[in-house]
Write a structure and sequence with these properties.
47% of the residues lie in helices and 6% in strands. It is mainly alpha-helical and 397 residues long. It folds into two domains: 38-237, 3-Layer(aba) Sandwich (Rossmann fold), CATH 3.40.50; 256-391, no CATH class. The protein has a three-stranded parallel sheet with strand order 1-2-3. The chain has a two-stranded parallel sheet with strand order 4-5. It is globular and about 55 Å long. 44% of the residues are buried.
């Protein structure tokens, strides 16, 4: 596979392209960051928050997973901007014990109001299987819920501003650093929902659930957001984003703790600590695209001048491609065998990656035994969903 001549991103990375020197579009986009007047950008942010401050019960909403990015965002909103946020968490069902301790510590230290929402598990596990079948990505419920649910809260409580964390331009080529990135309906439909709407999912899953059940995963009516004069922006569009520096800050200032994550070096223990299905998600990426999170982490370090390309390749070779222990949990949740899992995922393989099922087995994370046991889909139900998928007209969407 072709790789970026500067970082390690391969040609199977989403929305990537290369210039005549073999430099990838994400690296080229990152160069634009160095030309930005960040003081001007910060003043733009101050104008946005000044318009809403002290106008309602809350100045803004901060969507909050408890990971490094949302924690730093909340810290910045409270300590640097002096805003009163409503912290909204969409609990996808896989929060880890350390993350919950981090979350509780952070919201208490910062003194903020907190709202936690967890969707119907009986629906979620069906959505996970349906999403895996259609897109080779079981996280549709998480992608859509994290973005849409806080917007419904904004409408309900009349809060006109949501402030997210990192900009997508740090990782992909969908947006450029010299653009004004909004977390809006365009981004929701282009990146977030995998091209599948909540209405689509109602049709796919058949009887048993109604539109009311899918509301948390549905982008709100635009007219309601317009009436609110609503803005939804990433903090990283206004200040330079550096996860390593920001992670060190929240450790120092808030007592935030990193954790062991499957397939992630200990040196990056700040990365994706909140979800115990993260190892499976990264494994699927490896099976589909031939690389996973450790490659992504090394590309960031290369761009920030923290590691050279050859040393980064050695780290990737050491950590990438392990079959995660958590795959057993995932298979029980969605009611399929590992052979069925491999067959489904490999149908979503991205050329020119030829695909390979690793023989290396990852060890169980230290808190594996503490993770919440959940009732899985009965095999008869998973068979029904697979049968409907095969007989339907969605396999090439």
């Amino acid at each position: 596979m072709k790789e970026c001549s500067r970082c390690l991103l391969p040609e199977t990375h989403e929305a990537i392209f290369f210039d005549q020197d073999g430099v990838c579009s994400v690296c080229l986009n990152r160069e634009k960051r160095n030309t930005i007047d960040w003081e001007v950008r910060k003043q733009s942010l101050i104008r946005i928050v000044t318009e809403v401050k002290d106008k309602s019960d809350y100045d803004c909403i901060v969507p909050f997973s408890g990971g490094k990015d949302s924690t730093f965002t909340l810290y910045y909103i409270v300590r640097e901007l002096g805003l009163k946020p409503l912290v909204v968490s969409f609990d996808h069902g896989f929060y880890r014990p350390n993350m919950i301790e981090n979350r509780n510590r952070v919201i208490e230290l910062l003194g903020v109001d907190f709202l936690n929402f967890r969707p119907n598990w009986n629906l979620v596990k069906r959505l996970m299987l349906q999403s895996l079948l259609e897109k080779g990505d079981f996280c549709w419920h998480c992608h859509t819920g994290i973005f849409s649910y806080p917007m419904w809260v904004a409408i309900e409580k009349q809060i006109p501003l949501i402030i997210w964390g990192e900009p997508s331009s740090e990782y992909t080529s969908y947006y450029s650093y010299d653009e004004d990135e909004e977390v809006d309906e365009k981004r929701f439909n282009q990146i977030v929902n995998l091209g599948i709407t909540a209405d689509d999912m109602i049709e796919r899953l058949g009887e048993g659930f109604t539109a009311r059940d899918f509301k948390p995963f549905t982008y709100p009516p635009v007219e309601k957001l317009r009436q609110l004069r609503f803005r939804s922006v990433p903090l990283g569009s206004f200040i330079p984003w550096d996860v390593k520096i920001q992670s060190s800050l929240i450790v120092r200032e808030l007592g935030w703790k990193g954790d062991e994550v499957e397939g992630v070096p200990e040196s990056h223990n700040y990365e994706k600590i909140e979800c115990y299905m993260q190892g499976v998600r990264d494994y699927i990426k490896y099976l589909k695209r031939g690389y996973s999170r450790v490659t992504h982490l090394m590309t960031l370090d290369i761009r920030n001048g923290r590691i050279d390309r050859e040393s980064a390749k050695k780290v990737v070779a050491e950590y990438e491609g392990y079959r995660p222990a958590t795959l057993d949990l995932f298979l029980s949740f969605v009611g399929i065998t590992e052979a069925e899992f491999n067959e489904i995922v490999m149908q979503h393989r991205i050329d020119p990656w030829k695909g390979a099922v690793p023989v290396r087995i990852g060890k169980k994370p230290h808190d594996y035994g503490l993770w919440q046991s959940k009732p899985g889909l009965p095999s008869v139900e998973s068979e029904r969903i697979i049968k409907r998928f095969k007989e339907g007209d969605w396999s090439d969407t």
